[in-house]
Every structure is written in C-alpha cells, then in structure tokens.
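## retry 2 of 3
previous attempt timed out at serialization; input unchanged, resubmitting
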Amino acid sequence: MNRLISSIAVCAIIACAFVPVRAADMAAAKQNYDTFCAKCHGPGGQGDGAAAATLATKPHNFTDCAATGKISDDTLFNVIKNGGASVNLSKDMQAWSTGFGDGEIHDLVAYVRAFCKK
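## retry succeeded, writing output
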C-alpha cells in the first residue's frame, strides 16, 4: 500500500512539473499594444511611433531581431511592468503596473516577440 501511495505521489509531482503554460491572448495583446505602445514603438514595432520624436531616447525597435533576441522575457516583462528605469534603461519608458495585470504583460511580451518572426 505504501508503495502505491508513493507511486501516486511521484506521478502527481511529475504531472505538476508539466502543467502547460497558458497561451497568450494575441488579439488582446495587439489591442493593448495598438492603444498604449504604438504611440512610441510604432504600429510595426520599429520604434517610430508619433511620440518617439519627443523622447530623449529612441524607443526600442522590436523588429531588430539581433538586439531584441538579447533581451530576456523577464527583462521585457519588468520593463513593461516597472518602467525602463527599473532595469537601467530609458526613464521615458513608463511603468504599466497599474494599467496591465501580469497576464496582460506576459501577452504583450509574446506580442512584441512576434515582430521578429519571419
């Protein structure tokens, strides 16, 4: 009986390790990006939004796959949530912690990553 319980416990632990990550809601992320991010980062993610010219630092060009590929998802998440200054980047990038929930921020990370897909 103990062997059976131990086997079930091990299987439960293994199953928990492989819980699927939730799929990004790309439609909602696009809407959020278009509404809040494109002003600076541009509709195509090239850092050429209408407000970009007013900033001290040019917004990141997400279509530059070499540069964007060097930025971890965790860093992108932190920049969106806590602002650029939180990771020693531009203070022009505001924090969105009060505007977006963590799930929405994860979706935005997935969305901006898609600018590099060829």
